[in-house]
Amino acid sequence: MRRLVPIALIVVGLGFVIIGLLAGLFYLGLPVVSPDAQFDLLQINTVAVSVLAVSGLAGAIMAWIGWRRYSGVRSVVARLPGPWWFALLFVLALGLGELVLGTRVAPWIFPPLHVLASVAPPLFFLTLAATLARPSGVIVQRRDLMLQVAGGAVFATGLALVIEVVAVVVLLVAAALIITLTPGGSERLQTLAAQLSQPDILRDPVFLQSLLNSPLVLIGAGGVIAVAAPLIEEFSKSVGVLIFGASRRHFLPAEAFLWGVAAGAGFAMTETMFNTVSALPAWGAPVTMRAATAVVHCLAAGLMGLGWQAWFSGARRWRLATYYALAVAIHGLWNAVAALASAMQLQGAFNQNLLLGAGGVLLMFALGGLFIINSGLFVYFSRRLGQAPVEVWAPLSPDVPLER
Hints:
Blueprint: H1 4-33, H2 41-70, H3 83-100, H4 106-133, H5 142-181, H6 185-196, H7 205-212, H8 215-237, H9 239-248, H10 253-275, H11 284-313, H12 318-351, H13 354-385
Helix pairs in contact: 1-2, 2-4, 2-5, 3-4, 4-10, 4-11, 4-13, 5-6, 5-8, 5-10, 7-12, 8-12, 9-11, 10-11, 11-12, 11-13, 12-13
């Protein structure tokens, strides 16, 4: 059994490396294979490099760790750099990326900058948590943190995506059945299907405004964004901690929190890389927004780590449900405010309503307040788990004379 785990890591890791290389080459080769098609070279290259970075690097990390475990090489204690180096990296990548965009060399120079700007904020929060937890004397293996980051980047995102797609399909089928049972419902569904078959329908402002004016669409989208997605993603990010906990049973809360933060960091990296590509060439604001979202993923995943530690300790298993509810609430509130802000700004733009647009701007300021609150909670839990242990001295016997 001990040999099977590293062999599985090597095979799965090499599989991700191959998938990353093939997918990256596929995207890079699209303009060559189909020269007559209209491709945005900037987006094509950015997607290709992002796929290579996520799948290729995560797979290489898994294969390398599997080989070292198979060879009997013991892991070393994680010694992470200071968090402010990653803050500086984000600022530099963001500034250089904005300078490069719009130039002829952007399709070749921008993609690596996009990757750096995507990975820097999650690594900032991971190293910040490790720095604040250091006074407790907790020892976290470098191998464990690297596996959690890689697993969060590929396994957690893949698992969450599959479950979310299934959930959305179920909701769409249920909504279609409800509409069919209403008078004229079949005709409305046929009209909607004909509209969706058009390639540029999602860029049609009239169609988008009709979606924003539909209560059924708003309720369904709100339920998915604010409830279903946080429920699914927080569980998916915690699977790595669950596997570690099931195999070790005894581990400290600080270890579990850092494992969770690492998985959340990997998840945030992948999400940022691919969720901001569609906004190109408008890149600075979306990637900054995703940088703020990194603290949500790291904090919520860290709380799930504390929940699994409480479960495996056997003392207070009810805390798993409490931490899960708190993680989902933090994630869901962030998603709800962000989605509502975007919807109000779109409605204001479509209807030329300054009041709606101003409401969207105010909600963006509310997101800034949530970012401060979430960052404070992240620092609080990290510092609390990082408190140095208190030395308790045995009381002196009355027969022992005191030194003068």
